[in-house]
Every structure is written in structure tokens, then in C-alpha cells.
Specification:
Blueprint: H1 4-8, H2 19-26, H3 30-39, E1 46-47, E2 53-54, H4 57-72, H5 77-89, H6 104-111, H7 113-197
Helix pairs in contact: 6-7
């Protein structure tokens, strides 16, 4: 059941392989292998007591099949999943027999030409909406930049008002002190004048 891709790679005769070894053998980086484990339910390596992944030979063959479908034949992850499950049900199928899935437009054209026109119209509308969305994003970014500038100006103005109020309060206290001093001086002058007039 080894695929054409797995015959190109010589898999050593071992029971288990660590993720680094599998990455070297298959040409797939370890982080991609970990991601594929979340997307393809059949790819479930065992784990050691320390939590390291331990791949078996069938796991490596499956990785090579997934790699062939995704990278060489340009399948989507969903399409590759479908093909792998189809291979499980019909083991005689080889990777050469697998054809990439048709686009929705191609499938619709086979069914109804009116659908093709509708799909074309929707694609045009989608492109127009995407362009409007990009324009709106640019305007939004500009508006946000202007709002930030306005906020900074408002903060500076608020700080200046606080400084002026503090200064005004100080000056108000100074004026009260001067006023009180003048009252005392006036009172002293009145007392002096009263004493001298007598």
C-alpha cells in the first residue's frame, strides 16, 4: 500500500522514528507535521513517556501521501482529507488516479450555464466588495490616525489648562497675601493718622 512518493524515500527499518528524523526523511518541517496531526485524524503518532512523538513506518507513508496531495498536486487540506478517506474505502486507487477537485465554477458549468453566469457575477461582486473593504480599511486607518492626533492635542491642552489653573491658584494666593498686607498697612496708616490728629 506504499505510494509512489514513499518508494522515492528509503525508510530505514526501525520500529519508531522521532519527529526530527521524520522531518529529515520526508522533507517536512516538524511544526508542519504537528499541524497536520490536527488536520488529518489518521495521523496520530504514539507518544513516549516523556511526551515525544514516535512515528511508525505507516505514519511516514501517510505523511508522504499527504505531502504529495498538498504540495505536488495542490489539493486543499479538505480535499486531501477527502481523497485519503476515499483511498481507505478503495485501496486499489493510487495517487496517479487521484485528480484534483474541480473548482465550483467548473462543476456548475457542467450542470447549468446560467449558474456559470451567476457565479461570474458573484465573483465580480465579491471583487468589488473586497475593493470597497480595502478602501474602507484605508479610510478607517486614516480616521484612526487623525483621532490619535486629536487625542494627543487634547491631552496637551488639558495639561496646559492644569498648569494654568495651578499658576492661577498660586497667583490668587499671592494676590490675597498682597491684599491682606495692604489692609494691614491701611489700618496701620489710619491708626497713625488718628494718633497724630489728636
Amino acid at each position: 500500500m506504499a505510494s509512489e512518493a514513499s518508494t522515492e524515500v528509503k525508510i530505514p527499518d526501525k520500529v519508531f522514528f522521532r519527529i526530527g528524523e521524520v522531518g529529515t526523511l520526508t522533507g517536512v518541517k516538524p511544526y508542519v507535521l504537528r499541524y497536520w496531526e490536527t488536520e488529518f485524524r489518521h495521523l496520530r503518532p504514539r507518544k513516549s513517556k516523556s511526551g515525544q512523538r514516535l512515528y511508525r513506518k505507516p505514519d511516514i507513508e501517510l505523511i508522504l501521501r499527504i505531502k504529495e496531495l498538498l504540495w505536488a498536486r495542490k489539493f486543499t487540506i479538505a480535499g486531501a482529507r477527502t481523497e485519503l478517506s476515499r483511498r481507505k474505502t478503495s485501496p486499489s486507487a493510487s495517487l496517479d488516479d487521484i485528480k484534483p477537485l474541480e473548482s465550483p465554477a467548473e462543476a456548475a458549468a457542467k450542470v447549468d450555464p446560467k449558474l456559470t453566469r451567476k457565479i461570474d457575477e458573484l465573483e465580480v461582486t465579491t471583487k468589488e466588495l473586497e475593493e470597497q473593504n480595502r478602501t474602507a480599511e484605508v479610510k478607517s486607518r486614516r480616521a484612526n490616525a487623525r483621532a490619535e492626533v486629536a487625542e494627543k492635542r487634547a491631552a496637551r491642552a488639558e495639561k496646559r489648562v492644569d498648569e494654568l489653573m495651578t499658576l492661577s491658584q498660586r497667583q490668587g494666593q499671592d494676590l490675597r497675601t498682597v491684599r491682606d498686607s495692604l489692609r494691614l498697612l491701611r489700618a496701620s496708616v489710619h491708626q497713625y493718622l488718628d494718633k497724630n490728629q489728636r
